[in-house]
Each structure stands twice: as structure tokens, then as C-alpha cells.
Amino acid sequence: MKYNPYSISKMGTFKTCPKMFKLKYIEKVRIDGEPQLALYRGSYAHEILENNFDYGIPVQLNHVFTQEEADKVKVMVQDFRNTDLGKRIERLINHPDSVLEEDFAFDKNLNLVPFKSPRGWMRGSADLYNVRASEPLLVDYKTGQDKSETEGFGYEQGMVYAVYMFIKYPEIQSIKAVFVFIEHGTKREIYFYRSEFVSYIRYIFNNTKKIENSKHFNENVSALCPFCDYDGTEHCTSFMENEMKTEEAMSTKISLDF
């Protein structure tokens, strides 16, 4: 496979914009843009949860992620901890059979390999899981927008998790992926079944094959373009050009109306 290893975010990048995939993963173009506050917030919230609600863990501050912002994250996580869902997550974190923050990878033959192995085909990171609970489950923490009611959200990510769990634990017949939206105290649950294992693998394979067979990696101009590091640079001006064309078209329409 040309672009191994794959991940949910990597496949998602191609789906969002093939040109962004090419710039990021093939040409490996790096843009020194302004760090995004949302990424720092999410990362720090994850660290607190991974360390069993330890609010004293060291935090790297900068001009974007200030002490004030770090304190807001602590309050957010504490508020979540006080919810019924937060209390259940805390009990799960402290369960002796729970596994926290585990990186994983598997190859094309569905063998588990070290996370950074060149043989890795698909890899990811599990925030929290427990296969000895009343029903095997895996938890993924989310910050930002509440997508607990968004149809289809989490299915592809949960599928990759499920494949990993079914490979590692041949005795389990199902796994529940739980996406927890920390700021909102909500969750989205999706069940995956061993009986559908082959269809999951086929789905993932077909997605990676589509990337492998792509020849042009065309840009996908959308409302997400302004959030892309490459937009407005020498590497991609598609969104700006499209905006200018739209403005010109509107200007022409207005002049014709008069």
C-alpha cells in the first residue's frame, strides 16, 4: 500500500479534500500556521481524563493556550465529572480491567503490529476500553460540538476500533463504541458485531483502495476551506478564487439588473 499507515483522520482528510491529502501526506508540505485553540483544549481535556481526573498534571502554555484557557478546560472536565455520565466514566476508568490510552496498529493480513511498524496498514489510539464489563465497550472522548444526535457520526472510527478489538480479543462477539461529548455530558453509542467483521474489513479496504487508485487529487472547494492550513497559500488558492468568481458573478448580475 502506497500511503501506509492509514488512520481515521487520514482517510477523513481524503474524503474532505483529496488535494489536502496530497499536500499533507504525499508531498508532506508543512505550514507553520497559528496553533488552534480547539486542539490544545481537546488534548488537555484528554490528558486530565487519561490521568483519572488529575487536574495537577503539567500543561504546556503558550500565547494561544493560556493559563486562563487551561483553567476553563479544568472547569469543563470537572462539570462533566459531576454528571451521571461523568460518574459512570470515572467508575470505568478505575475498574481493574479497564485499559486506558492504548495505541494500536494492524497490518493488511490483520496481524497486530507495533504502532510505528512499517508493516502497519491501519492504526489508531483508544482512549478507554473494557472487554470484561457486562458488555465489552470502548470509549472515545470528544470536545467541541455536540454530535451525539448526528446521524452516521462515529461509524467509521468505531469500525476501525471494532476491527482492532475483534483481532485482539477473539472471544468477544460484540463491542459497543461510546463517543462521549465532554462539554455537553452526552454520548453516542454504536454497536459492532463479529458477525459483520468481514464487511467492516471490506469497507476499510475499499476506502484505502480509492485513495491508492486516485490519480489527480483534485481540490474540493467547500465551506471548510478557510479552516485549512493550505488555503490562501501558494499551494492552494481554490477557495479564494472561488469566492472572487462568486463576487464577480454577483456583481455582473447586479449590473445586468440595472
Task: Describe the fold and architecture.
The C terminus is likely disordered. The chain is built from eight helices and five strands. A five-stranded mixed β-sheet has the order 1-2-3-4-5. The protein has two domains: about 160 residues, Lambda Exonuclease, Chain A, CATH 3.90.320; about 40 residues, no CATH class. With about 260 residues, the chain is α+β, with helices and mostly antiparallel strands.
Number of domains: 2
CATH architecture of the largest domain: Alpha-Beta Complex
Distance between the termini: 58 Å
CATH topology of the largest domain: Lambda Exonuclease, Chain A
Number of DSSP helical runs: 8
- Beta content comes to 15-25%
Structural class: alpha+beta
Strand order of the largest sheet: 1-2-3-4-5
Sequence stretches where pLDDT stays below 50 over 5 or more residues: 244-258
Strand and helix order: HHHHHEEEHEEHH
Top keywords for this entry?
258 residues; alpha+beta; Lambda Exonuclease, Chain A; 2 domains; globular; disordered C terminus
